[in-house]
Write a structure and sequence with these properties.
This protein is of the alpha/beta class. Helix 3 links the parallel strand 3 and strand 4. Helix 3 runs parallel beside helix 4. 47% of the residues are buried. The structure holds ligand AOF and zinc ion. It catalyses: 5-amino-6-(5-phospho-D-ribitylamino)uracil + NADP(+) = 5-amino-6-(5-phospho-D-ribosylamino)uracil + NADPH + H(+); 2,5-diamino-6-hydroxy-4-(5-phosphoribosylamino)-pyrimidine + H2O + H(+) = 5-amino-6-(5-phospho-D-ribosylamino)uracil + NH4(+). GO terms for molecular function: 5-amino-6-(5-phosphoribosylamino)uracil reductase activity; diaminohydroxyphosphoribosylaminopyrimidine deaminase activity. Pfam families: dCMP_cyt_deam_1 (PF00383), RibD_C (PF01872). This is Riboflavin biosynthesis protein RibD.
Length: 371
């Protein structure tokens, strides 16, 4: 291929892959234990099939895109955000489906670390004479698949710490219910983040002080509320809290020590609250690494930590935060404020800035861990 044609092809590949990555976002938080993956089938520059991993994880993206494309898949190019699977799981291998459909070329973004796939998907395609281009927009795809890749490679979910900080460096006022730090746009944005995560986690102090619901309340997306987890060593979650009261509608899991009050445990269980088995570390606190390992083993890919200062500091101190979503509001809290565990003026050590935006009067900065 002439250099100019190759450059044009690379540009076209990036354009379609960017569209596929955007499509894959649609089912983030809805496909556990599977990743949300997207496929586009492109014939003569026209998208003739599109698929995103179905809610609940199956069918996979490729089979849906191929079904929509029908005969037009023959000789076409397939754009896949994750290497097509190679294993006979609960569905037949997507690599085989691409071969059978007669696609001429497959363009992939991220490789699949799942040991049943890991290079075998691309190998099946190549063995059949399909042209394969790997790694197109690999970084952007890996960012979208961060939860899945984290769970596969580190055996724990991606931990996203969300912090809303006032201009004077506070995250709220002690003993008081929710203090408004950010405006409407930022709050809507946080609800979208909740929709895209598998679980949302708070310390019991926040549950007692703020009595939050932790649901996604965006119009039309109410059904996308993630599982709510409370770190609650001594089982202080009030049965009258919004969390306990709504446990039958949206799951609530409490991480409490084994010796916590049996009566309270039974009462919460009767309300529909579930419990996570936990270990206690040498500081007397719930051991977070083991808790995260257990959550990953159950399929959780992303956990959003939403409060409060102590819980945020605990995750930061243990080096368990992978991403920080930081909102800085224009107002001050003043007297009685609870100081943020992070200084909003300094980039957190060991993190790099990946996104910056303004939502109304609030500043948004997103950081990911560098190591
Ligand atoms: C794909 N396309 O859309 C997704 C894939 O349990 P199974 O049989 O559904 O397989 C789960 C594995 O499939 C998962 O661990 C990951 O490797 C891959 N996900 N693969 O070809 C998709 N979601
Ligand atoms: Zn598959």
């Amino acid at each position: 291929m002439a250099a100019k044609d190759a450059a044009r092809q690379a540009e076209t590949d990036r354009r379609f892959m960017a569209a596929a990555i955007r499509l894959s976002r649609r089912h983030l938080g809805l496909t556990a234990t599977n990743p949300s993956v997207a496929t586009l089938i492109v014939c003569d520059g026209v998208i003739v099939g599109r698929g995103v991993t179905a809610i609940g994880g199956r069918p996979h993206a490729e089979t849906q895109a191929l079904a929509e494309a029908g005969d037009r898949a023959r000789g076409a190019t397939a754009y896949v955000t994750l290497e097509p699977c190679a294993h006979h799981g609960r569905t037949p291998p997507c690599a085989d489906a691409l071969v059978t459909a007669g696609v001429a070329r497959v363009v992939g973004a991220a490789s699949d670390p799942d040991e049943r796939v890991s290079g075998k998907g691309y190998a099946i395609l190549r063995a059949d004479g399909i042209e394969v281009t790997e790694g197109v927009l690999a970084e952007a795809a890996a960012d979208m698949l961060a939860g899945y890749l984290n769970r596969s490679l580190k055996k724990r979910p991606e931990v996203i710490l969300k912090l809303a900080i006032s201009a004077d460096g506070m995250i709220g006022r002690r003993g008081e219910c929710q203090v408004a730090i950010t405006g409407t746009q930022a709050r809507l944005q946080v609800h979208m983040m909740r929709a895209e995560c598998d679980a949302i986690l708070i310390g019991v102090g926040t549950a007692v002080d703020d009595d939050p619901e932790l649901t996604c309340r965006l119009p039309g997306l109410e059904a996308r509320s993630p599982t709510r987890i409370v770190i609650d060593r001594s089982l202080r979650l009030p049965p009258s809290s919004k969390l306990a009261q709504s446990a039958r509608d949206v799951p609530v899991l409490v991480a409490a020590a084994g010796d916590a009050d049996a009566g309270r445990r039974a009462g919460l269980a009767a309300q529909g609250v579930g419990f996570l088995a936990v270990e206690i570390d040498e500081t007397g606190r719930i051991a977070l690494p083991e808790l995260l390992e257990d959550l990953a083993a159950q399929g959780t890919m992303t956990v959003m930590v939403e409060g409060g200062a102590e819980t945020a500091a605990h995750f930061l101190d243990e080096g368990l935060v992978d991403r920080i979503a930081l909102y800085v509001g224009p107002g001050t809290v003043g007297e009685g404020g609870v100081a943020s565990p992070l200084d909003p003026s300094d980039p957190p050590e060991g993190f790099r800035l990946v996104r910056e935006a303004t939502f109304g009067n609030d500043l948004y900065r997103e950081y990911v861990r560098t190591r």
